[in-house]
């Protein structure tokens, strides 16, 4: 058990170090950063904001990780978020119950994933092109649903999903925590994760060795669609309205970035959901940190890019080799030093 | 092609001779950008309404955010020999040729809401709002309302580098200069969206001692203000009284917030750009009065005293 935990910690070490460094940096520019208090029966503070605001990207990153592990990519998640937010808002305003609304919305997300999966697995279209279709069309579909306006709603149940709290934690945080653990358990406690990795390494070889490749591929994209649907519900519930033009805009790129920061290779074959979640939290920490720092907005993107480049360079093979080299050098010197004493 | 042009100008001549009698025979082409925002949808609705009230036959063309579609629409209006053309240009450059064609056909062109980089003898007039003035109306309201008391203001800017963000910031700062009691303590972009408005306001509240240091919020548009109002409420403060909220655009949802006492004031960016345009056109048709090259629309200030519930009901159906 401890061996498993240790290997897990070792895998997540670069991400954890990066996160700690960023949080430390933010606390320098904004001293009250780590302060937490209980207000209105919930924890209140910048750290909670990071976990709460990061919810959509975390959720997208969970689905994206599994898709990328199959050597695919899902560019449509941002647009699917917009579609699902629009569907949820229009369903609740047209008088459906909350349960029905959630069912319809999650179903819509899964359906979008099914479409992507069909294009990739059955028609054999390259994932980047296949999902580009829905990325472009999706926002249009969402606008059709909301008729171009921001569709607002007042259903307390749906709003609770975005801004409510349970056990002192904002509900979006609990949702992504529970969902992330669930997905991680399903893929890691069964052979599913290994089969997904097998497809990513060599799709043809895994098909020949009896893996149901098309089914698993479609399932991966459906999971990504489901994640986007949950993220879309949270984003809409958060502002009590569905904004087809802006919901999830460019978030597919943040999700891919989160997966990359998490150390999952875009070439597929290996993945870690926990690392991707950490990657998403790192991105949100940077965002929140910039907002708290009080720099003029013209600097936002440059600061973000600089930090991300730094993290990625640290993870790059040449940098890793250099680090190992330095470590080896020190290790080899130690015994001689001891002898000298 | 030449024949078509000759035919077109002939029909215009005919239309003009008949048209001078009453506005009822006016045919006006309207090239709209597309459906990029709720405000634009409202502008389209109001333009159609205004045309109907005046008995103008409006030919509507939606360009779906593409300049080539707008140029195509303008050429077809010219070929149809309309009496005038309304143009909401999607970009500022590249209009010289088609505007010259309209001029050659003696069809007056009126620009709505945005201007173009072309010689101003190519169009009759431009009906736009003054973005700097909008910001200064908001700033003046705030200065008058706090009346000398010290007040820390946080600002939610529009998309970085966009002209509304630059000008609305400039106008607001102009109105604040000379009032040393008012200080902008934090200013960040909220990208004109509710989500970002809420997220940025959350961080403002944390950074300024849980919001106790903030006395007013100025948002470059209403959507960001609506998001920020939710953030203020979730932080356990009362928007509208603990933190004053002033924004720009006057979309329906801000009136709902104002009716609930959660927002204080908004400056209207009127979607009725066509009304003044049609008025100028009518005067021109009647006795050839040339309007000024720029018709500035009114930047009306709405506060809680202006019966926000009623304004909300009136604006709701416009397609915002």
Which features does this protein show?
heterodimer, A: 341 residues, mainly alpha, ABC transporter involved in vitamin B12 uptake, BtuC, two-stranded antiparallel sheet, 75% helix, B: alpha/beta, Rossmann fold, 6-stranded parallel β-sheet, 11 helices, YtfQ_transport (chain B), Peripla_BP_I (chain B), SBP_2_dom (chain B)
Q: Please, could you describe this protein's structure?
A:
In chain A, the strands form three sheets. Chain A has a two-stranded antiparallel sheet with strand order 1-2. Chain A has 15 helices and six strands. Chain A has two domains: about 45-295, ABC transporter involved in vitamin B12 uptake, BtuC, CATH 1.10.3470; about 295-335. Chain A is mainly α. In chain A, about 50% of the residues are buried. Chain B is α/β, with parallel strands linked by helices and about 325 residues long. Chain B has helices at about 1-20, 40-55, 65-80, 95-105, 130-145, 165-175, 195-205, 220-235, 250-260, 275-285, 310-315, and strands spanning about 25-30, 55-60, 85, 110, 125-130, 150-155, 180-190, 215-220, 245-250, 265-270, 295, 300-305. A six-stranded parallel beta sheet of chain B has the order 2-1-3-4-5-11, sandwiched between helices. Chain B has a six-stranded mixed beta sheet with strand order 7-6-8-9-10-12, sandwiched between helices. In chain B, strand 8, helix 8 (about 220-235) and strand 9 form a beta-alpha-beta unit. In chain B, helix 5 (about 130-145) packs parallel to helix 6 (about 165-175), helix 7 (about 195-205) packs across helix 8 and helix 9 runs antiparallel to helix 11. Residues about 5-25 of chain B have low confidence and may be disordered. The interface of A and B includes residues 32, 243, 247 and 297 of A.
């Amino acid at each position: 058990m401890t061996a498993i935990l240790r290997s897990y910690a070792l895998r997540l070490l670069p991400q954890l170090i990066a996160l700690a460094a960023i949080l430390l940096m933010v606390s320098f520019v904004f001293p009250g950063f780590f302060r937490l208090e209980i207000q209105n029966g919930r924890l209140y503070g910048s750290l909670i904001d990071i976990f709460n605001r990061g919810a959509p990207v975390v959720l997208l990153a969970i689905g994206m990780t599994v898709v990328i592990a199959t050597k695919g990519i899902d560019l449509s998640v941002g647009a699917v978020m917009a579609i699902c937010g629009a569907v949820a808002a229009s369903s609740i305003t047209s008088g459906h119950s909350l349960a029905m609304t959630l069912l319809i919305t999650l179903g819509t997300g899964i359906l979008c994933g099914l479409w992507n999966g069909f294009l990739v697995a059955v028609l054999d279209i390259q994932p980047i092109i296949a999902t580009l279709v829905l990325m472009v069309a999706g926002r249009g579909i969402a606008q059709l649903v909301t008729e171009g306006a921001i569709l607002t709603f007042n259903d307390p149940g749906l709003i609770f999903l975005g801004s409510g709290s349970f056990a002192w934690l904002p509900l979006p945080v609990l949702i992504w925590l529970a969902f992330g653990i669930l997905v991680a358990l399903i893929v890691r406690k069964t052979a599913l994760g290994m089969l997904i990795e097998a497809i990513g390494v060599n799709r043809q070889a895994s098909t020949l060795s009896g893996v149901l490749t098309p089914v698993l591929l479609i399932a991966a994209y459906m999971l990504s669609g489901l994640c986007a649907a949950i993220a879309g519900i949270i984003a809409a519930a958060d502002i009590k309205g569905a904004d087809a033009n802006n919901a999830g805009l460019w978030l597919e790129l943040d999700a891919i970035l989160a997966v990359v920061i998490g150390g999952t290779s875009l070439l597929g074959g290996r993945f870690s959901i926990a690392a991707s979640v950490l990657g998403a939290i790192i991105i949100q920490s940077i965002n929140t940190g910039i907002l708290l720092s009080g720099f003029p907005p013209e600097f936002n993107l440059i600061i973000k890019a600089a930090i991300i480049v730094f993290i990625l360079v640290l993870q790059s093979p040449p940098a890793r080799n250099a680090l190992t080299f330095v470590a080896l050098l020190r290790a080899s010197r130690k015994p001689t030093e001891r002898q000298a004493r | 092609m030449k024949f078509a042009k000759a035919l077109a100008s002939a029909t215009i001549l005919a239309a003009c001779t008949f048209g001078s009698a009453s506005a009822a025979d006016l045919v006006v082409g309207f090239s709209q950008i597309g459906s990029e925002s709720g405000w634009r949808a409202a502008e389209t609705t109001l333009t159609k309404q205004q045309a109907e009230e005046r008995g103008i036959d409006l030919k509507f063309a939606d360009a779906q955010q593409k300049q080539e579609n707008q140029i195509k629409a303008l050429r077809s209006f010219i070929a149809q020999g309309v009496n005038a053309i309304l143009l909401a240009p999607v970009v500022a450059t590249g209009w010289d040729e088609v505007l010259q064609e309209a001029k050659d056909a003696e069809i007056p062109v009126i620009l709505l809401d945005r201007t173009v980089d072309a010689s101003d003898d190519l169009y009759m007039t431009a009906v736009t709002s003054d973005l700097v003035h909008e910001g200064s109306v908001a700033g003046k309201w705030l200065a008058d309302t706090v009346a000398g008391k010290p007040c820390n203001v946080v600002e939610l800017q529009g998309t970085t580098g966009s002209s509304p963000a630059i000008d609305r910031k400039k106008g607001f700062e102009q109105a604040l200069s000379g009032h040393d009691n008012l200080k902008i303590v934090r200013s960040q972009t909220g990208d004109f969206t509710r989500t970002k408005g809420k997220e940025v306001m959350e961080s403002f509240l944390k950074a300024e001692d849980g919001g106790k240091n903030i006395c007013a919020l100025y948002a470059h548009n209403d959507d960001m203000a609506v998001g920020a109002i939710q953030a203020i409420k979730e932080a356990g403060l009362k928007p509208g009284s603990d933190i004053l909220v002033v924004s720009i655009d006057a979309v329906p949802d801000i009136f709902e917030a104002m009716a609930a006492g959660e927002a204080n004031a908004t400056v209207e960016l009127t979607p009725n750009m066509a009304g003044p345009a049609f008025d100028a056109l009518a005067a021109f048709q009647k006795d050839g009065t040339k309007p000024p090259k720029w018709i500035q629309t009114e930047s009306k200030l709405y506060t809680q005293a202006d019966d926000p519930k009623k304004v909300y009901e009136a604006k709701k159906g416009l397609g915002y």
